[in-house]
Amino acid sequence: MRSWIRQTHRWLGMLLTLTILVNFACMAFGPPPAAVTYAPLVPLALLVFSGLYMFFLPYFSKAG
Fold first, then answer.
1. Quick check: 25 and 63 in contact, CB under 8 A?
2. Terminal Cα-to-Cα distance of the chain (whole angstroms)
3. What is the pLDDT of residues 29-64, one digit of tens each?
4. d(C-alpha 12, C-alpha 45), whole Å
5. Where are the transmembrane segments (predicted)?
6. Residue 12 near residue 43 (C-beta atoms within 8 A)
7. What are residue 12's phi and psi, to 5 degrees?
8. Phi-psi bin for 30: left (phi > 0), alpha (psi -120 to 50), beta?
């Protein structure tokens, strides 16, 4: 489970980078549509949760 979350976190980081690059590329041609503007928020939110899980995992495993 831990390795799956870590691998997912890495792929989400790449997806976030890609969505931000697409956002900037669309801005070069004018204001981007709302779907492109808000697209990075989904991987960002998932990165926050997976990052917090990985951050607190050592503390919870010691307590148990």
1. no
2. 17
3. 999 999 999 999 999 999 999 999 999 988 887 765
4. 10
5. 12-30, 36-60
6. yes
7. -65, -35
8. left
Tokens of 49: 């949760």
Percent of the chain as helix, strand, coil, to the nearest 5: 85, 0, 15
Q: 3-class DSSP state for residue 39?
A: coil
**pLDDT at residue 59, rounded to an integer:** 87
Q: Identify the pLDDT of residue 58.
A: 86
Rounded distance, CA 53 to CA 25, Å?
32
**Which tokens is 13 given?**
């980081």
Determine whether 28 is exposed, middle or buried from the number of CB atoms within 10 Å of its CB (0-12, 13-18, 19+).
exposed
